[in-house]
Protein 1
Amino acid sequence: MPIPVVSAASAALAHVPGLCRHGSKPSRELPKNPEVQAQFLASLRTFEQAVAYGPHQAYLGAIHPRDLPERPWVGAAPNGEGRFAGVGELMPEDEFLGLLAAVDDFGLVRLGAPEAAAIGERLARHPLGAHFDLEKVAAAAGDAEAVAAEPGALPLHLGADRLAAAVRRAHESDAALTADVFLENLAGKASATLALLRVLADNGIDPASIDYVIGSGEEAIGDRYQRGGGNLGKSVAAAAGCVNASGCDVKNFCAAPVPALVIASSLVAAGVFQRVAVVAGGSLPKVGMKFQGHLKHDLPVLEDVLGASALIVEADDGRSPRVRLDSVGRHPVAAGSSNPKIMEALAFAPLDRLGMSSTDVDDYATELHNPEITEPQGSGNVPERNYKTIAALALRRGDIGRADMGDFVETRGMPGFAPTQGHIASALCYVPHARARLMDGGAQRVQLIAKGSLFLGRMSEQSDGMSVLLESNDEAEG
Amino acid sequence: MFESKQVIVLGERDGIAGPAIAACVKSAGGHVEYTSTECFV
């Protein structure tokens, strides 16, 4: 049976301050109060500020999260990295508007004529320019203001006030195809496509060699007859030129990427497919979600990027980290919803099964939301809470002593660094770092732990989650 | 302590889930009108 490995991984961010007003919270709150709207628009970051932001560089893989400086990260000196860093890039929003048009198969995005020409030129010079559908970008040129004034259309801005594009609704009466829903889905597709193109190009992988693309983002595409029934995975495959690929989506709220990785690995192990991509695009509804807390604390609107990831799973190449399918942890119904019970099921039950101690895991990658984003809104420090729970359970098992708890959290945990788009933050963001550490000898095992708030869909009081170990190829050999 | 009280329960994903709070309220004599767990991140 082939042993699956994660042979490549990428990360991409799109800086979208102009789109922040279309996030779920801002789109509901800003129209109520012109003063708040003005403050919001005056608090958007520049592209240079977004590039210099340490957590963004950590997300791209240019700096390990444990090497981030002490907070505050807002206003800290840049580390010298640019927009292309680590295993990815941070794309500016004019190029991202162009990318929206490039992956828009139905011609619903209209770019202002001057913007379309400039954006087309910039995308043509982009390292992935040969893979972008620049004809679609050119065809999208037109009168953005006129389109924005059409019934049901949305204006798209660059920064605070420059109307540069517009998006039409995809149906005149289908609530699943309104302009705002379509824009969410298209933003997820565009950012996931960017991440997939990058992982293919940077690793010399022929797009035609991909058999299957699994979408694991939060967007659930569909129409009014099957809301959420769609397949963004194959849409991304098509946009990235994976001509031999099919695909599907795995949905599980924020937890979806880890089940998607496990399913991809299982397909490879079973010999069903040879090369599978797992992709996740950014979540536009989450952008600007905690802006009120940021403005209250005189911070910029920090949720101004879309996060995306892509990774490749294939049979053992003798060097890439192995996916231990015998280590999969699941959150069974009977475990209930308390955080310690969930962590017992996800982090420790698999280790018990394998006869391992919690100290056999070098890095725990759990929900890695950036606390600088969550704390001002009163949502606390999510990764710190998780690491304290894991350390407390390790203490209770006798794996560590009480005096070791702080060191356990510090050396096996890490500060949160991911944008607050839950599926991106839920362990997926750490895969590039895990690969680096597992391949350079820095770590032997990394546990990915994802949790999802199933109860939000009001079908169950349950939550869910999944975990899996990545292990260095050297360790597996030994 | 909750006898004759009507209670709305809001749990938190990383803290105490709604059903756990509701169980405590019921055991203390309260009547739970509504329970939910929310995600604030």
Note: Chain B touches chain A through 16 residues (CB under 8 Å).
Protein 2
Amino acid sequence: MKSYSDLQIQKGILRNDNLVLQYIYKQFFYKVNSFIKKNSGEEEDASDIFQEAIIVIFRKLKEDDSLFENRPFQTYLFSVCRFLWLKQLESRRIEKEKVSETLPFQEDVYDDNLTELVLKNERYSLYQRHFKSLSTDCQKIMQMFFEKIPLKQIAQIMGYKSEKYAKKRKYKCKELLINRIKQDADYKKILEDDT
Amino acid sequence: MIRKVEFLKWIENYLSGQLTFDQKKIFEDELKVNSELREEFKFQSEIYNAIFEDDVMDLRETLSSLSMAEETNPEDKVQASFDLIEELDTFNQYDKKVDPKELLNYYDSLPKIHVYQHDIASKENIHHFYNEQEVAKVDVEDEDSEADASLMDEIQAAVLEKEVLQLRESLNQITHSMPEHNVSDEKIEKYIEGTLPENEKIEIENEMKVNSKLVADINLHRNLESALQENDVMELRSEMDQIIKTQTSHTKELEDIEKYIDNELVGEDLKSFEDEFYSNSDLKSDVKLHKDVNAAIGERDIIDLRDHLGEISKDSYTNESKSIIMLRPNFSSSLMKRSLAASILIIVGLTAMLKLAPVNNEKLYDKYYEAYPSYGLSRSASTDMDQNLKQGLVLFSEQNYADALGVFKSIIENDTENSVARFYAGQSYQNLDENRNAINEYKSVVEHQQNLFVEQAEWYMSLCLIKEGEKQMAAQQLNKIVASNGYYTQDAKTLLRRLKYSD
């Protein structure tokens, strides 16, 4: 297998390069997996945490592209995974003092910025998950709306008779989405975390 | 058409049976066509049921069992001269008081529920109770045994600590599932857009000051838009998803796995492999897969084949996917050179030939096509491989294709999944110039996937297609081979180019 430098990894993540992502997965996931399994987690938790860690890093990279100049990618990844898992343990009310540390991590990764980013990521991924659960029509119409495509055109593309109907459809979709989000137990948890 | 703002009222009246016949019909018709109403109705009736069946029933049951308990101890009743019992009596009234209809009347308005709770709370003031208890104790000492007093204490404590708490919790739950404000989504949206009339805007802002839930909802609306425009993140997530679903995670190359299985790893390499092996289930399962594949082929076969391949340089067969393509190395030496030479010859004459009549096409094909060597033969010599297959391969290597085909066919009849037989049946057909049949055999080899002949079958299939004059399909097939980046990729590219030019 080809190996990648941190810079290549950084660029790979930013452009969703499948090969780089595969490489990251092959190289690092099993360690995260064994860390989580040792600390009251399941295989599924590990996949979720790993995936979200990559996305947190992606968000972070968009803010700050010198991220891997001071520390290796591997350390950063493991630190984020550990952070996410500890947070998860907390919300499951599992004692995190007894964590068996099998991952190398750096304490200074855990700053306010990361905490904030992780919270934002949690919120956004919840919204996105529910968005993806809408019908494709709904997704399409909302996306177009957000992209500020004129209503008239939206109505045309979707084959609706009138702009008014397009607007109504869009409103219904959004309402459905909001309701689903609000009924999600995770959303309630997020609200509690915020306050 | 029932307006959205009136949903609650209609549903409520419907559930509590307060609609006239006509109204009921209107409501039910609306329910059929209005999905939104349907959702709301489902939700409301669940609440309704919850209130009816669970909480209240529970409460009623516990309360009645409580009064039963009281009755089974008639002495208590008789000596109910002290305040405690009176307290209980007033408590008994609560099972009437928590009439579901009454609850429903409260439930559309949040403040009312709060008031209601406060009402209950004030009536069962624990502080009061203890005061009264003090008095009671004095009474008890005067008039009755201590045992009875402690029983009463217990009853009291149970009443106050369990049932009331339970009721409170149920009510709390209802409160939580109720909308925390009455500002509609539409209004919120208009508020964010800034298209709301001034007076309504002020109203909302005033409400926001005291209602954190409204603030949260408005933030939700605001965030939603930017969250849904994050296409890049969504794509990244689905890509990761795919990878996690389809890949295994370990740092070892196929080569290392093979070496590990063959006990060829030593020293540091072995240690690092084993370290990972014991902590990484993915690596474990990959090693198992390799072992299984080897077992499927037959260890002895491999050893024989390896001996047979003795002269071949190590490089060519330790590359990426050694174990999967055991059959290749033979090709990689002399045969490959020959076939490359053949393809060069073909390139020279291909354009012209392809343009000519199919007869010439066949000539091209004849040059290009070489019967696939029956490796099985050398492998089978020292194994207990299926006798039939062995016989077939012997016939095949003697170029007695018709008889060989008969044998392969009989094997397939008993074992439709036997890809070795299918592949060589295809080969036999091809040699007998029955290309259509050959293509069918190759197809089933390719579709079966779990075998060692997929690449070969794809390649020979494309040759058959050329011979049948199906240039377009052949091109498709060749493109697939090119994309797979396998052993025949280079040949396929060449042939494809020639095919294109010949159009």
Note: Chain B touches chain A through 41 residues (CB under 8 Å).
Protein 3
Amino acid sequence: MKVLVTVKRVIDPYVKVRVKSDGTGVETANVKMAMNPFCEIAVEQAVRMKEAGVVTEIVAVSIGAPQCQETLRTAMAMGADRGILVETGTVDMQPLAVAKLVKAIIDKEQPKLVIMGKQAIDDDSNQAGQMVSALLGWPQSAFTSAIAVNGDSADVTREIDGGLEKLTIKLPAVVTTDLRLNEPRYVTLPNIMKAKKKPLEVLKPEALGVDITPRLKTLKVEEPPKRSAGVKVADVAELVAKLRNEARVI
Amino acid sequence: MSSYAAPLKDMQFAIAEFAGLEGIAALPGCAEVTGELVGAVLTEAGKFAQGVLDPLNRSGDRQGAQWRAGVVTAPDGFAEAYRQFAAAGWNGLAAPTDYGGQGLPHCIALPLQEMWNSANMAFCLCPMLTSGVQEALTHHGSTDLVKTYMPKLVSGEWTGTMNLTEPQAGSDLAAVRTRAVAEGDHYRIQGTKIFITWGEHDMAENIVHLVLARLPDAPEGVKGISMFVVPKFLVNADGSRGARNDIRCVSIEHKLGIHGSPTCVLAYGDHGGAIGRLVGEPNRGLEYMFTMMNHARLGVGMEGVAIAERAYQHALAYARTRVQGRAIGRKSGDRVTIIHHPDVRRMLMTMRAQTEAMRALGYLAAGELDRAKSHPDASVRARHQARLDLLTPVVKGWCTELAVEIASLGVQIHGGMGFIEETGAAQYLRDARITTIYEGTTGIQALDLIGRKVGAEHGATALALVAEMRELDAALAGAGTFFEQMHTTLAQAVDALESATRWLVDHYHAEPEAAAAVAVPYLKLFGAVAGGWLMARAALAVAARRGTSDADRTFIDAKLATARFYIEHLLPPAAALSLTVTRGAASTLALDPEGF
């Protein structure tokens, strides 16, 4: 069975993000970048399924600047067999355009399972996976914390507000990963060396017939307001009163 | 408590500028060594260092290795971390591909050693010694020995040790007494070795000891020492692990630092003699040991860089969060974090500037090592080997001496809290303290520098390096006002190094005692001036990039400021050591031993 995983290049989670002085976005020039942690979980899941003999081929897909090749190499060092980069240059990539590009590649590659991160830690949109599923008309399992493939279906566990939801979905399907699905491995040195030799295909959005023009306009990006100092309450009654009247949360 | 983050940008910069990545990629067998590969390897190694090794550093220090009835247990978590380290293939990074290694050059291996040591020096000594054994065996071992041991040492399934020291034979190895007697195709070894790092532990299934011992008919002194491979478990003909050899760990030392690493007393042959096999030819053991010792000395120099970097990161994290006092010159307003205080900044800059200069020199030496090993032209190889030989004692001696000072500054920045173990600042100082001692003390490094490296060849390589330092003069003179001070101060410092070198060349043969008396000041002078030269080169290199569209302004501005600080604060006092070298020998020896 072939699996397709998507990997996004984002600001390294350990880096302090700074807003650009002109308020058009956040500073990414010369900032350390890394694979989105939820995408790492997606790759790890595919690799584990391949090691278990369930999966035969893993195709990693990334969309963005030419430097996303590094992210694809990381995915291949983790165990993906080949990579596809859709080079979109400096265009602000929004979830629907991403989903359409991913769909176009899925149409070409015909994987039986698509594993995506539930969201990327930069924009936190949490939309691309669901949109891919809708565009394809495939079943989806978002926020997945366990997955077991049984022939033409998969048993999945989803993390929902009320607890865990267990479903059986028909394949092909789209699965998005939650934090507890697995713990990604450290890449090994021999696999870094092997990854350099794995095939990496570079495509343009036009070649896939997808219009990636942004549909949303960013008005302004600014730092969240500084937290002001707290107040001490005398008793529970005052706390409840404040929650009700000032915070208006109960 | 801070968490280690590998300084990837400065590492990549130093690899490109000072090791000379482009030139190394052109060497035979190094075609794969691109900036992209270096970036990928450094990034992934950095994650491992940060995620696996660093979290065990403090717990390893507090718990320490444990000895019970001859069995040594590594601190909690070390065995699992070692398993991961070996499984990830890091152990075989620079090892030949024939035995399962990746055959990558030293310009990548040394920066990785820096990372491992920054994260957890006690842990990292184990793989470092293993690679030393690999090197000794590949250079001097028979095909059979290599076949038996190399694959397991490269994979990390087995670890290695160096057994030189005995109670009466420390720096003076001529006094080695351990005996080896031939018996069929092998030897029986009897004697006691001390200070054997990772000499016994529970992290690997076998331990391969390289032991210096004397044959019965061996001449006295250093020319009568042979090298033997003595495994903890004998190895069967099919390569599998056989019977336990006659080696016992009698005790482990209680040390000032590197508590996570067991320092063992090993008793060989209490029950008839441990079985060992000769490496190479009889009586050439010390010579063999030195081929890898030079390499190990570079490695210990990197330990200095590593601890300095870690101590800096730790102190920086504290200085950013500790609130104390108002900003200087303000009588009211909020209290500030101590990084706002000028003297704290001076200390942080001192740590940072010296660490970057040390890294530059260390990586430069790694580049020399790669060229000396792999360049197709023999005369070019010889030139780089001479440069490497000259720089090795400087990297070892200077980087480790500074590491102690830098780690001490790290404690100072913490104030009283630095003296309290809970903040973790003291561990770096305690761990750094061994680096000026093992693999040859600073005094031994300095004697090597003035003797074999400067005196023996009348200063040829050293003066050639001085001439190369002067080549920067014109570039600095024409680089604008920012570089004016750098230009004059560096020129004076290079002059100081030259006059000290010439004094040594003139006095080394005629007055060896006087030369020896000022050898350490000379080594420190050498390191500091070489560091200044490289910081000036770094400043010129980043200044040239400043105008490009994708220039990393944060990195460039920081490098310029750091280089300037080095030249203004650290170079002048170091250059003054030239006066000590040329005039200070007599006062050193003025009191005779009875006069103390």
Note: The CA atoms of residues 2 and 111 of chain A lie 5 Å apart.
